[in-house]
Amino acid sequence: MQEPSLSLADNPDRHFIERFIADGARDLPVPGSPLARQLYMRLLRASHGAVDASFQIGMDFTQGGGVIQGGIVAAMLDFGLAFAALSVLDTGRTAVTTSLNVNYLRPASTGLYHVHAVLEKQGRTLIYASAKLLDANERPIAIASSPMAIVSM
Question: Which end of the chain has the smaller Cβ count within 10 Å, N or C?
Fold first, then answer.
């Protein structure tokens, strides 16, 4: 049995960021992704090729040492990278992370986090983006970069 293919018409995140930019919106919860909702993701600001988002991370996402599990840190960065890419793509196209390079700079405890992500370069088939994750005191927690494949749906 062949898996159903996705279409961008089914991608609520691309539509959300498109409307967010068009409306000049500020500070709205991201409704489309179940994980974004669990991480209390809010899109703070967005323009074509750049986004700022916040996350409120609770104890459910910590590991045994009481700090946020590294995969959750990577997920926050990946959300930022993806939304930056989605901000420039037309209907019928999406971006898929092909590789994610994360450098962890310090442990992260529960609380409020801010991701700033920007596109570095957009080609015909790839988008390159970078992101940084800051804590509530604006201290850098981690940085990431990613090439993302541009996929037509």
Answer: N
Q: For strand 101-104 and strand 50-57, is the pairing parallel, antiparallel, or unpaired?
A: unpaired
Give the predicted TM-score (pTM) of the model. Answer: 0.92
Local structure of residue 6 (DSSP, 8 states)? P
Query: What are the distances in angstroms from CA 125 to CA 76, 87, 104, 122, 147?
Result: 24, 16, 28, 8, 10
12-23 and 70-86 helices, crossing angle to 10°: 60
- Considering the domain delimited by 8-152, tell me its CATH architecture: Roll (3.10)
Interval 134-147: pLDDT, tens: 999 999 999 999 99
φ, ψ of residue 64 in degrees (nearest 5): -55, -30
